[in-house]
Structures are given as C-alpha cells and as structure tokens.
C-alpha cells in the first residue's frame, strides 16, 4: 500500500507543481456544487491517476480538483467511493492516504442520510459527532504500516469537537436546522427495512447512510482531524414507511446543497 500511495503522489505532484493543499474535501451527496466555489488551479480525472479507483455512480463525477476556497488551498474529491460499488476497504480509503501525503492537515467529508430520529427531519443537516460501524470489513484489517499509524488506533473522538462547535454556530447564524448526530454506516446499496431502522435507533443512531466511516477510520489512523456533515434526505422513523426513490433523495440533497456549501465554506475559512 505504501509504495502504491507513493507512486500516486509522485504522479500528482508532477502535475500540480508546488501547489500544496491544506485541506482535503470529499464531495459526497449534497456538496457536489462546492466545486463552483473553488478557484480551480488543476484538475485530474480519477481514470488518469495511477492506482486510483474510479467512482461507478452516474451522479459522482470522478475528478480530483486542486484550487483555492475562501483563501485556503484545498484538494477536493468530486465523486466518492462506496463499498457497494464492489471496492474493498483499502481501495475506498486509498484517496485519503494520498491526500494526506500531498500535505492536507484536515479532512472534510459530506454525505446524504436517512433519519432514524423523529426530531431530525428531511432537509435538516447533521453534524456528525460519532458513528456506529455496521460495515462487514475494516480498512485497517491486515498488516499495519507504522509509517501511517499505530496498530490499534483510538476512536474515542473520531470527529473533531472544535469544528463541530464552529459548524453548529455557523448553521445557527444563517438559520439552518442542524443537529449533532450519531451516524450509522451500512453496506448498501438497498435502503433499510422498518425493523432495521428501529434497530439502528435502539442502538443509538440518529441517521443512517452508506459511506464516510471507512475514510474516517483511516484519517484517524493517520491522526488527521475530521469534520463530517450530512444532508438528511428521507425519514425512516415512520410506522407507515413509504418507498423512497433515488430521484427524491437527489432532489432533497440539491435543495439543501446551498446551505451545506455555505456552512463548509465558512468553516474552512475559520481554520
């Protein structure tokens, strides 16, 4: 893994020259248009980067973007990777290791989720404080490379507390409904059954999605502070649960996207 990351970083450096990103951003559902706010210096398609996995989703572009956002150098993944696409955990988290070796000091992640908590409604924003990992594999399984981190990394505070507080204050200032939440990660790609929604609420979850946790585990392994934000696109707590379409999820995410973008822009400017 280490040598693959080195090869990829070397390739990218040849194309971006002296540009060094301070922050990495994984543009999941709800933050895709943040790219429009970046003063782009370089962009590289995933397909052209050695060893880099390629997103298979039609609504995830698959491009690594380098530029300036609110005066700060960033690298943004326009299109993230999911376990349900068929990738293993090491492949899903490979870009995080690459971004860290390129120089980032903090990682920002976004996703879409369903609510397990009746106090959290469709269209709200979740500021992730903790997670429950229901994925069937772990990106740290296998031999540990001490150059990245310790064998048994601590996960008592996987999401940066200070950035959470800052984001909640920003959301309050601009009139956005935001909640500090526990995120449950599942393999997907199907949505949950009524019994699964009840179970996830019983074990302490507030929202549920199909991403984020692998990247957060690897970031913590490398002692990289993480902020994660989620757009709540559907509600799984109703007794008479109704089917939810991908089109509806994307529609709600698009409506909330300007709010999430503003929160993240202001948060990055504060770092």
Mean pLDDT: 94
Query: What's the CATH class label?
Result: Alpha Beta
What structural category arises from helix and sheet content? Answer: alpha/beta
CATH architect. name: 3-Layer(aba) Sandwich
The CATH homologous superfamily: Nucleoside phosphorylase domain
- CATH topology, what is it called? Rossmann fold
Number of domains: 1
The neighbouring-strand order within the major sheet is: 5-8-7-6-9
Distinct helical segment count:
6
In summary, what is this structure?
This protein has 271 residues and is an alpha/beta fold. The chain has helices at residues 2-16, 89-102, 161-173, 194-202, 213-221, 246-270; strands spanning 23-27, 39-45, 63-69, 72-78, 106-115, 125-133, 178-185, 207-209, 226-235. It has a five-stranded mixed β-barrel, surrounded by four helices.
